[in-house]
């Protein structure tokens, strides 16, 4: 009997522990010309992936916006769950993000933890890359605030999770859209100023060159007239 027990314990101990699953969502857009706003998201997500994989977690990406998909797909193509694009052609609505949330929850990937990375608007000239946690179904079910209810069925928990995910994505999209517009305005303003400086320098160079040519021609005319006399 002891041998059977120890043998069973050995078999249980030999079973590898399941990796914790982490869903990492990144929010960008489909357009550029807005400075380093997209690369800052990619940099933060790559750092997060390195940290999570170092502790043995399985990480899957979700890209909202073609820019973040393009950057991460080159190095983490095997870790992409799904990507969404053409989401920012019009101002985001809660109905749009509800479709995204539902598709993620119906993808079959049951994550233990999750977070969404986005740019948070601070002022017209600045933004900050942030990370917002997203709660899994188990986290919601075991929350202390849920214990005040006598009975919460699975459908209610599923609705809570879907709303939490949609609300987080909606907030992130709104903040990212505002940050992108301000960053693009700043980038275009700087470009316009640089273009004006280049035009001024080229105009000065042109005028100096033209003046030099005119002076040279006048000098040649004068010397020619003197030679004839």
From TrEMBL:
Keyword terms of this UniProt record: ATP synthesis, CF(1), Hydrogen ion transport, Ion transport, Membrane, Mitochondrion, Mitochondrion inner membrane, Transport
GO molecular function: proton-transporting ATP synthase activity, rotational mechanism
Membrane topology of this protein: Peripheral membrane protein
Subcellular location field: Mitochondrion inner membrane
Assigned GO CC terms: mitochondrial inner membrane; proton-transporting ATP synthase complex
CDD domains (UniProt xref): F1-ATPase_gamma
Record-linked Gene3D superfamilies: 3.40.1380.10, ATP synthase, gamma subunit, helix hairpin domain
Domain of life: Eukaryota
Classification via Pfam families: ATP-synt
NCBIfam families named in the record: ATPsyn_F1gamma
Function, in words: Subunit gamma, of the mitochondrial membrane ATP synthase complex (F(1)F(0) ATP synthase or Complex V) that produces ATP from ADP in the presence of a proton gradient across the membrane which is generated by electron transport complexes of the respiratory chain. ATP synthase complex consist of a soluble F(1) head domain - the catalytic core - and a membrane F(1) domain - the membrane proton channel. These two domains are linked by a central stalk rotating inside the F(1) region and a stationary peripheral stalk.
Subunit structure, as described in the record: Component of the ATP synthase complex composed at least of ATP5F1A/subunit alpha, ATP5F1B/subunit beta, ATP5MC1/subunit c (homooctomer), MT-ATP6/subunit a, MT-ATP8/subunit 8, ATP5ME/subunit e, ATP5MF/subunit f, ATP5MG/subunit g, ATP5MK/subunit k, ATP5MJ/subunit j, ATP5F1C/subunit gamma, ATP5F1D/subunit delta, ATP5F1E/subunit epsilon, ATP5PF/subunit F6, ATP5PB/subunit b, ATP5PD/subunit d, ATP5PO/subunit OSCP. F-type ATPases have 2 components, CF(1) - the catalytic core - and CF(0) - the membrane proton channel. CF(1) and CF(0) have multiple subunits.
Family to which this protein belongs: Belongs to the ATPase gamma chain family.
Protein name per its UniProtKB record: ATP synthase subunit gamma
Organism lineage string: Eukaryota, Metazoa, Chordata, Craniata, Vertebrata
């Amino acid at each position: 009997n002891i041998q059977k027990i120890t043998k069973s314990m050995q078999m249980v101990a030999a079973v590898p522990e399941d990796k914790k699953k982490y869903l990492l969502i990144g929010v960008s857009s489909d357009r550029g010309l807005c400075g380093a706003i997209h690369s800052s998201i990619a940099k933060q997500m790559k750092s997060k992936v390195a940290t999570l994989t170092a502790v043995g977690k399985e990480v899957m990406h979700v890209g909202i916006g073609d820019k973040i998909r393009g950057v991460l797909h080159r190095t983490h193509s095997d870790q992409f769950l799904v990507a969404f694009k053409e989401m920012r052609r019009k101002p985001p609505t809660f109905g749009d993000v509800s479709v995204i949330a539902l598709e993620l929850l119906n993808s079959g990937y049951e994550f233990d933890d999750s977070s969404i990375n986005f740019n948070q608007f601070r002022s017209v000239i600045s933004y900050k890359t942030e990370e917002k946690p997203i709660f899994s179904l188990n986290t919601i079910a075991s929350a202390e605030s849920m214990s005040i209810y006598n009975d919460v069925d699975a459908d209610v928990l599923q609705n809570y999770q879907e709303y939490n995910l949609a609300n987080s994505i909606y907030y992130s999209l709104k903040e990212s859209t505002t940050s992108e517009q301000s960053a693009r305005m700043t980038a275009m303003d700087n470009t316009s100023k640089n273009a004006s400086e280049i035009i001024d320098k080229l105009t000065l160079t042109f005028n100096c060159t033209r003046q030099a040519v005119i002076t040279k021609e006048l000098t040649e005319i004068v010397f020619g007239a003197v030679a004839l006399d």
